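Subject: Protein entry, chain in single-letter code together with its fold tokens

Area: Proteins and the way their chains fold up in space.

Attached in line: The record itself begins immediately under this heading.
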Amino acid sequence: MTTSPTTAPETAVLDGTALARALRAEVTASAAALATTGITPRLAVVVATDDGSSAWYVRSIAGSAARCGVTCDVEDLGAGAAPERIRAALERLSADPAVHGIVLQTPLPPGADFDDLARSIHPDKDVDGANPLSLGNLAAGRPAHPPATAAAVLELLDHHGVELAGRDCAVVGRSTVVGKPVAHLLLRRNATVTICHRHTADLARHTRAAEVLVVAVGRPGLITDRHVAAGCTVVDVGTNPTPDGGLVGDVDAAAVTGRVAGLTPVPGGVGPVTTALLLRHTTSAAGAAARRPT
């Protein structure tokens, strides 16, 4: 998709369901190949919350894993788990040769610092790019699993034929889960990247200059038609619950439709690809472990 940013296009829906299906098929094949060598890819998800949306996400991961031949162990430590107990679980799993991937699910209990605890995830098993070492390797262009949500943004853009090299891209949000890693992944693809955040003066001035816009801040309807140029491609990473139990993104989809070249739906865009990539990262880590000298 290389629509000129000066021409108002018909907006394409950059759906993620077909891509997620293809990724799961790839994971299933990889897991089956590993099984012939006696290896079953194993993902451990450490949970210390009773948050409903988090529970739904973890169930989604476990269900997808089961269908793909990946074992998913959910370690529920309880919403009041002390940081020391969470750290001990991560260290134990990192030392377990049967575990290939580890995810620390958020939110965490009060007093538990995610960045501090994520240091206890061994980089070889850090399939969601949480350990600061993984983020540092990503920034340095060294091998590392990026956060799955950030990787999903690039997978979606590639799947829908969006060219990145030499293009002006803007990322709204600077978290270590999406904003910063997405910016580094875009830089790897030779894009010119602007990062915007809550202190950015005149947000619209920066976002209107973008040919590709990635939004990940958790503010429903933040981006409207005045924030986007005609022909821009928009990836909406936001997942904001609505009173009726639905989800909406950070982009006012109705306002930008008919102006932008492409827009990811919420739900059905980045989300299913993220889950599939966690499983792909896990099978990749299992294969790397099998090749590592003992």
